Structures are given as C-alpha cells and as structure tokens.
Amino acid sequence: MPEVLFPLDSTKKFTEQVLVGHNRWHPDIPAVATVRPGQSFRVDCREWFDGAIHNDDSADDVRDAPLPIVHALSGPFSVSGAEPGDLLVVDILDVGPIPQETGPLAGQGWGYTGIFPKQNGGGFLTDYFPDAYKAIWDFSGQQATSRHIPGVTFTGMIHPGLMGTAPSAALLAKWNQREGALRATDPDRVPPLSLPPLPDGAILGSLTGADFDRVAAEAARTAPPRENGGNQDIKNMTKGTRVFYPVYVPGANLSLGDLHFSQGDGEITFCGAIEMGGFIDLHVDVIKGGMTTYGVSENAIFLPGNVAPQYSQWLAFSGISVTTDGEQRYLDSQLAFQRACLHAIDYLTKFGYSPEQAYLILGAAPIEGRFSGVVDIPNSCATVYLPTAIFDVDVRPSAAGPTRIKPGASAPKSTF
Amino acid sequence: MPEVLFPLDSTKKFTEQVLVGHNRWHPDIPAVATVRPGQSFRVDCREWFDGAIHNDDSADDVRDAPLPIVHALSGPFSVSGAEPGDLLVVDILDVGPIPQETGPLAGQGWGYTGIFPKQNGGGFLTDYFPDAYKAIWDFSGQQATSRHIPGVTFTGMIHPGLMGTAPSAALLAKWNQREGALRATDPDRVPPLSLPPLPDGAILGSLTGADFDRVAAEAARTAPPRENGGNQDIKNMTKGTRVFYPVYVPGANLSLGDLHFSQGDGEITFCGAIEMGGFIDLHVDVIKGGMTTYGVSENAIFLPGNVAPQYSQWLAFSGISVTTDGEQRYLDSQLAFQRACLHAIDYLTKFGYSPEQAYLILGAAPIEGRFSGVVDIPNSCATVYLPTAIFDVDVRPSAAGPTRIKPGASAPKSTF
Amino acid sequence: MPEVLFPLDSTKKFTEQVLVGHNRWHPDIPAVATVRPGQSFRVDCREWFDGAIHNDDSADDVRDAPLPIVHALSGPFSVSGAEPGDLLVVDILDVGPIPQETGPLAGQGWGYTGIFPKQNGGGFLTDYFPDAYKAIWDFSGQQATSRHIPGVTFTGMIHPGLMGTAPSAALLAKWNQREGALRATDPDRVPPLSLPPLPDGAILGSLTGADFDRVAAEAARTAPPRENGGNQDIKNMTKGTRVFYPVYVPGANLSLGDLHFSQGDGEITFCGAIEMGGFIDLHVDVIKGGMTTYGVSENAIFLPGNVAPQYSQWLAFSGISVTTDGEQRYLDSQLAFQRACLHAIDYLTKFGYSPEQAYLILGAAPIEGRFSGVVDIPNSCATVYLPTAIFDVDVRPSAAGPTRIKPGASAPKSTF
Amino acid sequence: MPEVLFPLDSTKKFTEQVLVGHNRWHPDIPAVATVRPGQSFRVDCREWFDGAIHNDDSADDVRDAPLPIVHALSGPFSVSGAEPGDLLVVDILDVGPIPQETGPLAGQGWGYTGIFPKQNGGGFLTDYFPDAYKAIWDFSGQQATSRHIPGVTFTGMIHPGLMGTAPSAALLAKWNQREGALRATDPDRVPPLSLPPLPDGAILGSLTGADFDRVAAEAARTAPPRENGGNQDIKNMTKGTRVFYPVYVPGANLSLGDLHFSQGDGEITFCGAIEMGGFIDLHVDVIKGGMTTYGVSENAIFLPGNVAPQYSQWLAFSGISVTTDGEQRYLDSQLAFQRACLHAIDYLTKFGYSPEQAYLILGAAPIEGRFSGVVDIPNSCATVYLPTAIFDVDVRPSAAGPTRIKPGASAPKSTF
Predict the structure, then answer these.
(1) pLDDT tens per residue, range C367-382
(2) What is the CATH number of the domain that holds A373?
(3) Do residues D101 and D191 share a domain?
(4) Which residues of A touch D240 (CB under 8 A)?
(5) Which of C306, C388, C390 should be substituted to probe chain B, the one whose Cβ sees the most B Cβ atoms within 10 Å?
(6) Which single residue of B252, D148, D155, D302 could bond D243 by disulfide (Cβ 3.0 to 4.6 Å)?
C-alpha cells in the first residue's frame, strides 16, 4: 500500500482533520503535500457532503443538503517539476470505499443516491421530479443493492467523480467572467444558470485571514467540469485509468474527491451516483511540454482501465429533441437524452417501479448514455442502455407482458 | 437464405426496379409486400444517394449530392395483423454489403464517407469544416481501410442507419406542424433549421397521378429520426439486434435503408458513416397492445446484438459546453460533444492527419460518444472514445511524443 | 467480393466439380491455383462428408457415415514465392454458409451435429455414448436453433475446422512412422489408435494413374491436427483471424475445409460442431524465413479475430483425473475434461434434456473448455463453461430447483 | 466491511495466531467458527508457504521450499444447518492482498512466482526446466510488474487458488486408497505420482494429542484438487464469483487459502501464480438437497464474476500430443498443452526473454489455456492465448522481425 499523504479520520469533520482540504478552485490554495514524478501515494476522500446525508429512511437531509460546502476535495498535491504547459499523467492504481468498520459515514459499507429538489440543486429531469428523494445502497463486496429499490443488483465501477488541476489566475478569471455573463441573462432562475463564488461555506486548506477572504471571494465553485477536468463524473474513470491533465500552475496542484461506488452516464439525478467516502491510490508523472506536443490545452484526455464489469445484454431506449409538450428543438442532444431517460423511466414503471425509483436506478446503475444521430436536422437522437442482468426479473419486452417486482419497498420522499 | 421480398438490380436506378421503394414518410405509400408475424425475409437496400457518389478521388459529387432524393428506402412491408397500438418486433438476422461482384455502386466492395459542405447539408462541425471532402473505404471481409486516410483499419459494425414504421396521418401532421414552426423562427438559415416536404425528387413507390402529388406535398423528409424510429443512426443496431417499433398504421408498414458498413456514434460528418448498399435479413413479430403494455408510445427500444467487435483499449477526449469563442452555454451536451470531437481532431493532427482526415475517422470508425456529467450547471460534459487498436501507430500520449503516420495520402476536397 | 478461385456447384458431388479438391495430405497433390502474396480470394468449401448427412430425423446416416472420404478439402493453393522455412500469413477475411437458396446440402440454411457410434469414429465420451445420434440445426442469420434440442439458441462463431499447409515428404514420412508405431501397440482396438493411409475413397485433385496410386498409398488422413495445422478445430479461428503456418513445400500449398457454423471447445462429439458447407475469403502473405526468425517450426500460431459473440455470464463445471470407476490417473487433462463434460451433461439432464441432447449441446454451442490446475499431483483439473444466455430457461442453481424445458423434442437415434 | 472471523497477524507465524488454521484435509479438524446461511464474513489468508519465500534476488528459498507445510488454509468454517447432500453456495464478495503496510510477507505489496525444481515439486515442464527460479512481482494497485522480467505489465485477477469443503471419512478413505494405488505403480518416481499423508509438518487447527496424531496420519495433502473442490487453481474464480460445493460433513466445513494476485490457466510452473497472502470476503448459503437436485455429487460448479480484465487481442499457440522426441501419444491433452506452452516459450525467447522468464510469464500472467480438438485420433490439440497488451513491445509476428526487450534483468536461479 502506498504512503497515505492525505489521511482522513472518519470520526471527525472534514475541517477538523490534521490536513484540511478544500471545496473551491483557486490557484492560491496551498498544496497539502509535494510529490515527485514517478511517485505513488494514497489519498483518503470524504463524501461530497461531509456526512450530512444519513443511512436512514428520510429524504429530508437531501432536501436540506448544504450545497455551499461541496465538494469536499483532498489536495492540492503539488508535483515537483510540473510547469504550465506540461501534461500531468495520473494513474488511478486503486480506488475503494473506506476500508474500515461499518459506520455512519457514507463509504462505511453503504452509500446514497439522491434526487435533489428543484429548489436545491435540481437535476436532469427536475421539471418532472421536483421533490427530494433518497435511496441508500448497501455494499456487498463489489456489488450494490438498496432496501429502497427492490430487485436490482449491480457491480460497482468505483471512480472519482471529480479530479483536476488548479486553474491559473487567468483561467479562473475567465471562468468567473463567462459564467457570470450567462447568469446575468436570467439572474432569478431556479435552478440558477450558474453558481457565483460563495465565501459562505468555503474551505480553503490552510489559508486564513485576508488571504482566505480574498481567495474565498474569487474562487470558483466545484460543481461544473471545466478546462482543468474537475467534476466530470465520468463513470469509466475507474481502476487502471490513466488521465492526462493540462497544467496551469507550477506544481499542477492536483485535487480530487466525490468518490462514487457506481454511476450511470450523466449522473442524471444530480447526486445520481452512489456517493461515498473512500481511498484512492495514485501514481503521477509529467510529460514536459505535453500540452503543445499533443494539442491538449484544456479538458482531460484519458485511457480508461480494462476492468469494468462486463454486461453482454442491454435494453436500449431512444429519444429525440422534441419536448414533452411537442415543441421541436434544433439538434439538442441534451433534450434527446432527457427524452430517452424519460422513456426508460416510463418503461420501468410497467414492472412495478415508481418513477422515482426508476430515476434513481438510471442515476446509480452502470447505464450507458450515448450520442446517436447528432446531425439530422432538426432532431438529435440519443440512446440510453440498461444492462438487463442487473434486474432480478426479465425486463425484456415479450408477448407475455411484464413481470412485476415484489411491491413494498419505496424510496423515501422528503416532507415539506 | 430467406426469400428476397425486395430485390434490387445493381445495374439499374432505384426508380427502375421491379419494385420501387420510397424516400419520404407518409401513411399512404402502398406496401410493396405483406409479411406475416414469424416470417423471415431478405431486403436489398440501395445506398442513400442511389449511386450519385463515386469510387474516385474527387469530392465534387459530395459537394453536389442530390439531397432531395434521399433516403432511398426499401419497403414499406406490411405485417399482417399489426394494428396501431401494437409493438412491431424486428430482428436483424443478418446484414451485409451487396454480395456480388465488385462494381461502381457503393456496397460493391467499397463505401464512402463525406464531409458535407455548409451549403449542402452541413454537419456536426460545419462551422469548422465548411467545405466538401470525401473518403473512399475498401472492404476486406469485415475490415475497412481507405486510400485517403492512411494508417487506420477497423472492423465494421454493419447496420441500417434508418428503419421505422409509417406515421399515421395525425403523427405526420404533427411533424409538419412542429418542424415548420421551428423553421419559421429563422427561415433563411443555412443550413436550415428543418426541411419542409419537397415534391421535387420524391419517390413514393407505386403511387401515381393525383395521389402522388397529394402525398408528395405532405410527406415528411427522411433525414431526422422521429417517433417512428427513422434515421436514428445507431451504430449498435447490428446483427442480432431486436428492435421494438410503435405501430401507427394498420400493417405497421416497415421501411428501411441507409446501410452503413461502420459508423461512429453521432455520424458526425453528416454522411459520417461508411455508406453502402447491401442486404438485410429480417424476422418480424407483433406484441399486441404492446405500446400501452410497455409504455412505448414513441421512439424505438431495442436489444443490441452481441457480436460487436471488441476493443479493450480506448483513448478518450472530453468537452464541456463552452464555445470555441469562450461563451458559456447552459448544460448543452450537443456543444460539449462538439468540443470533445474537436479536441480529438486537434490531437490526431499531431500524428500527421489533416483535420479533415481526423474528422472523417471520427465519423466512420466505431468511436463511442457518451454523455458524462449532464447536471452540473452550467457545464455539460461529453466524452468521445477512440479504440487505439484501429491505428497502425501508437496514438497514446507519451514522453517520447507522437509517431507521425506516413505522409502522402489526403482526403479529396471539392473544387469551387 | 474477391475472385472465386475454387468454386463449388451445390448440385454436384465434390468429385464432379470443375476443380477437384482432395481429402488426404501429400506434398505431390497438385495446386488448383497459384496466388501471390497480398492477394485476396474466395474459396467455396464442401461439408466434410460431401452431402452424406441429410436434413431429416434419422441418425442412420451418421451411423453409416463414410469416414474414408473425409475431409473434403478445397485447394491446395500455391503461394508464389513461398519457400520452406517461411511463415505463410493467412487472414480470414470472411467466412459463411453457402450464400444461395435453401437446399439439401448442409450449409444451405442448416447444418448438423452427430454423435458418432463407437464402431464408426467414436467421440470424446464414446464409452458413455456408444450409439449414433444426430441433431439438425437451422440457421437464422447469425443464430442457430434445433428442432431436436429445445430451448437453446446461440450465435455462431463460423470458422474452418481444418486449414493447413502441405507436408514435405520427410514430414509425411515422420507422420506415417510415428502413427503406425502407436497403432502397432494395439492394432485391433476400436476405435483404432490412429488411422493408416487408405487408398479407398482417396480424392487427390487432378492426380491420376500411377501417381494417384502412389500418393494414395502414402498420403496421410486428414482427421488429426499435426505440425502443418490441419484439423485443429479451434472455434476462435473465425472472421478477422490471422494465422501463421509453417511452410514445408515450395508454394506452401494451403488447403482448407470442414467449415463449422459453431463449435464448442474440443468438438467433443467428434462431429461436434455444426457442420456445413460455405465460403471463405482469404488474404495471404509470406514472412520470409519466419520459421527460424520466430521459432515457429511446427503448429500454427494465430491472432484470433475480435468479433466473437459476447456472453458475460457462464456456468462452469470442473473435473479431475479420476475415472468414473474411481481409478486415479496421473495428471491427465484429457480425462479431467471428460469428467467436467460429464458433470455438465448430468446437470443439464435435471432440466429435462436427455444425456444425448446435452452432449450435442456441448459439442455445438460456444462452450469454453479450459485447463485449470495441471501440476498438482496426481490430479489435473479441467473446467468447461456454458454461456447461460443460450438457454431459454434459467440454468443457474437455486433453492427453487431447476425449471424443466418443454418435453417432446428428442435427438434422433440410429436403428441397428 | 464484514466481520473478520479469521484474523491473521502478519508479524506472526501461521501457527502462532489466535485462531490456527490447517494444512491437511480431514473431517475431524474442528471448525474455527460457525456461520449461518446468509452471513457475510471476512477471512484473512496466509500465503501458502507461510513466509518461507522472500522478496529478494535468490531462488534458494524456492529450491528449499518446505512442501510439507502447504497449504496454509484458513478455516474450517461450519455453516449451520448444512448437511451432507446439500450444496454450499459461496459468494466471493471481495478478495485482495493484505491491506496493510509494505512488509516482508508475500501479499504486502508484492508476491512471487517460482519454478520449482524437479527434486522438490517440479512443474508442468519440469523435464525442460529442472532447476529452481524465482520472480518477484510488485503490485501497483491492480497491476503487477517484476524487476526480474522486463517489459511485462498485467492486471491481476485475484482469486483463491484453493477452496473446498471437508471430506467425509468415507471420501477421505477413497482418496487415500486410489492415490496410494497409483503411487504403488512406481513408488520411487521423482516427482512422485502422488503424495501420501504426512504427519511431519501437519497443522490441524486446535487438535492436540492422540487426536492430532490420528488425524495427521490419515489426513490428505492439499495439493491436488479433488471432489471437494480444493486446489483447483481456477483463475476465473475471482470477485463476484458464486461457487456451489458439495457438502460431505455436517456444517460443510469450508476452508480456503492459496490466494493468487494473478495466474495463467494451468498454473504451469507449479507455483505458477503470483502467490500472496490477503483477505477474502465471503457470503454463504445452502441449497438443501442440492447435490441430488442438480446432479452435483462431486467437483465444484460455479458462476464466474463479471469483472475480469478485458483484453481484446491475443496471440495464440497450438500443440499436439506428440512428444518433443517425436513419439506419438494417443489423444493426450496434457501433452498437447505442454507442447503449446513450449511453443509459446520458444517464441518469446526471440524477443529477448530467457526460457525461464517466458515460462514464468506463462504461469503468472492471465493467459488462457484451451482444449481445442480432443477427438481426432491420435492427436489432441491444445491452444494457449497470450494477451498482447501485457507486453511493452509488439509481440505479433511481422516481416520486420521481433523487437527485442531491453536486456539486463534476469530471473534469479538457485545455487546447487
């Protein structure tokens, strides 16, 4: 096991640890450690809400989830010799849940998926699912099941939802400018068009005083993926993956977190993955001048690992860029994927799932979401693939009609 | 080999065959044959431009491609007993190129991929690639190579780009209404926002006279995918696939065409697949009342076959919903996928490919395009995966830098 | 489609064709055609018994199968420039059943699997299955089903069971010597220990007269695999495979045949594959001096294609090298694999299959047979893996007990 | 993490632990714990030689390896309610190396593969490799590399080499009888034909005194796989696998050990896997009367997990049942597999590996060993498949000839 450079004590808050991480992007957040190219090291990760979501049967904690404090990130790790213009090579050697006893922190043998309410985060289908719901998943080795969603078992593809290098001051400024400009077009929208810097709740490592205040006022929120990688939520970035990140600041300043036991493409319920804390073993290297050599000036490129669970039969749904109200949109894959997901949800209700349970399955299980035709005006076509083997019953269409799951279990909904 | 219900003579035009197909969607196009549930049959298919694109080194034919005549569709096939509300079950038993001698028709041992010019069809990246280009691919059994794109070989996933049932009159009216409404918002746009009915070039099976004129004036173009399936361009709909289509008219009236030897997710160069004529063996069945039973009132659902070529190493690129001009868009997966594709193209140029060659590879090779994060405001994240084994050289990033392909070959560009 | 260098007319016997192949190995059998390195060409293949086995419900044809006439091989093809010491590179571009109408010849939409009687060929488990049985399989595109074995459907992995280069005179003499020496140890055994040259039934291409008689007296039977490749029955040698054969005579003299629609590892019922006639498209090349360069002086090496059907769930059985009478043998993987297969057969009978049906399934379906421990004295361990998805019922063990298939169908048994 | 029912302290010998396991099979070895059907629990496992093999550059420890003390097994675990005639259902929830700091015990970040000398264990090719060699493998997350074998990296398929239920007294007697009878046919053979009970070195859990002596005199060695499962060395029995074992004694008395980080089919160097200590999480259940219901009276059946590393390109070698001296044997798959492995070894030496390095690779890497033709008298055909991606250089044959690995590293050989 490689040396633990960023340990977390599961009994303490994220801010009470020996080393304190961060939950904003800024070039001036100090590194917690320096590693050399070729070094392997272990990093503990806290689940993104730092313990605010509980292993119980109420969704009130999802309803009230403290978005200002996300994401609890481990790092930054400075890589000696890395300079702007280089590519940082990050190998995910291993990643898993907290390897200690069962406990109250997500990752301690369990994780959660939430449907976030429209008032607090929303999600891919928030217009159809405006309320808060939760599902708790129990881990049994590599597999997940939920007492809130009967008849589903799948193998986890554990991965960090969020990993990236620190932005330069110029890049950060660009983010704040362009996201602010978008927000200004409809400043009162719910959910908002983008999230401004938010000093409230900011955690900035060892920064204090005036430095803290300055950085907190400028630092970018961690929700969106950006040029530095960030919250890409790519389910295939699992064990054995090699990622190449652009380097924007001396030392690269790599940070990561938001571990998922499993996730469907899109992470569609916003907190669509199975969220957990855990550990990740990394190996880093540097390709000098790689950004120019390979034309990678922004957004990670990567070689996924070769150990994803294999499913050989899939049930696929398609959607096009027409709204549920019948309005035609122009080549809109975002909408087409929404429609494909809604079709899958409608379908699963015929087997006895509630719409919310079906939505939670799509968020958490290893579904594949693919771009199909994207050029045939005016309709984009998107497809979503469900592995049939994750269901206890046969979910394929047949003349005999659907077999219904055992009734009883339901996903908790928040009160108001 | 099942009985050939729709034969095509490769030496004759699509309109000069014993049975004439169609290139518009309309409920009143007469069926060319009636099949019973449980029946297997073979259908010949003509490449979508009916021979207008040639196996040569000029892209002028792509520049001038006769869009009004697409897609040359085989059918409709009426399925006895199928009624509106049923699901039509279509098994793709086999599909392949024209199994005769080498010749001048795409499918006769070769196929083509075109970058369509902005003035005539455009494509996913038409703002960056406004001119016409072409690549000819030669088939060697299951594999494709191109004299216009060196150093690339891949295994075909042969599939019909277009298959679907006839719309009802009401559904057709809805299409015309909504697509017209969109077009009306910017009627002079190039490329247009949608395509109106177009009597010019219409082929409507055995219809003649006043019936022909009436139907030609109403019938929908075949380019976009819609509720009836249609031009979905799903590369995984290959041999062994079972598709379930909604039935909107008595007999279902299944039509199909636009065979592809291979295609990347998205078919991004518009004519991004390797286009060809060929044959397809189908088996049909009916699930009575299946649209209600399974909640499938629109858009095909399907079980992909299990014989796709296996690639175990992929090089992936990511993109977010920020334009190349730096403008922030809100959760736009269409844009994010464009950016991911542009990143892949930039990358491949470092190995010696021209941007157009790289664009053509992404259209034709079995690349995977996936939705990654779609909920993290304001950025959607999309990813595109290239199988590394299709390249003769090692395309993975390394400290040694890229190995350049042999120079020389180039993709033909049209004159002006 | 490449040029057909060896055409077969399905309405005529193998010996009545324009070009006549052969059914023995000998360096002096003249080539039917000469091809150059880099050339692609099509070869028609006759099923191994040249039409003696019929699409009916009697196994008498299997009981009386004319073993002296096997295998009907297409070739030899001389490769210009190939010399002893080279490696012949053979790409299997495509392979499939006879692409014409349904008919009485195996390959014309159907194929067969036989359990050969102990008196006429025997098989892997002939001591347990001494009588003749037959199953007819119908092809539906890529898939096979049998009216004699209910509840099983699988995707074919079409491949040539037999392909190889001609032996040199010295190599042929070695074969005859060593196989004769083995036979001499128990000359009256049934089945025999090996098969001597047999002029009766020999087909030797264009040879006639004294040459025919001399070669017929010396030529080796084609049943066993040997240094030149030959009847290896490797189910993974399917489309996209590249094989490297040692060259023993000028021109290499490649021959092939014994096409299988599908086969389980081991081809355990002797005629365990689904036998058929068909076509194969080949591309050949030469690595000069490759036998020494790569240390490949005997037995083919190969790169399997990447389009095998994918199954992600398997039910596996194990066996050890103890006989059914309880006798301990020393590290005998042949016996261990027999025991594993017998365990699989016993198991399948609990679901309603007859032992013969189960045996036929193991021969014809894409089962995997693997060496497990081979070093732990005194027991070798072998394992056999059945893809669960080929069965209509769930064949996994459970507390509920096995679901029995619908009774009725049975595999025909020969009369006596 | 499930409760640890069998903990091991890495700083202490196997016999000095709080709970002591065993290294022989006997029905009277007392259970270390009782579990109930439906229970999950963790078991620590010691590497099979209990620390006798070191992380150094000498193979003397392999030469002198204390075979009488193998295998260090954890257990037995009694399952409440399990009775003879039942099937014990064992799910492998998780399995991995010792999850603590780096240290001197195999599993603490490293493992070993040995070629055992003919005088002390031997191996599959001991007639060709009579001396002792060793390779140390370092674990980097899921991947293994060796300072003794350059240019090879592969993903581990961690699995228990040995797992099984206790034999009944009658079954044990049968083992001793049949193995003794075999041994009696050539009692002085080196290596021996089988291993008799051996009180020297026996570890029998909590047994003492006369009970110890009686059991030690009767108990079976653990090297061979037998009816109860045992040392099957099945590389696919990894995470997610469900195994069904016959139950021969009340409580079933499950034991296990011999963890492997990786192994090739056959484990051909005897200690061919990468040996290590570690942990395994199990879930057990019982199918009452399952042995009769499913016809499984001996030898485990299992459903492999779905998370094995995926390799899509393989280089395969074939062999037939002719000895290297040219003697023809009758349908001997053991010999055919030896010849296939020897061909692979010869081939790899052309790339710069020593024969011993190649042999060690075949033992430790995830190679596949398959039965090909097993019925074509007199030759069995066996094939061995190497994933090409595990090598740093391209190991496919080409006209350019082999690329040699960097010289320097070698596998340590023992002194004499």
Answers:
(1) 999 999 999 999 999 9
(2) 3.10.28
(3) yes
(4) 141-143, 155, 309
(5) C306
(6) D302
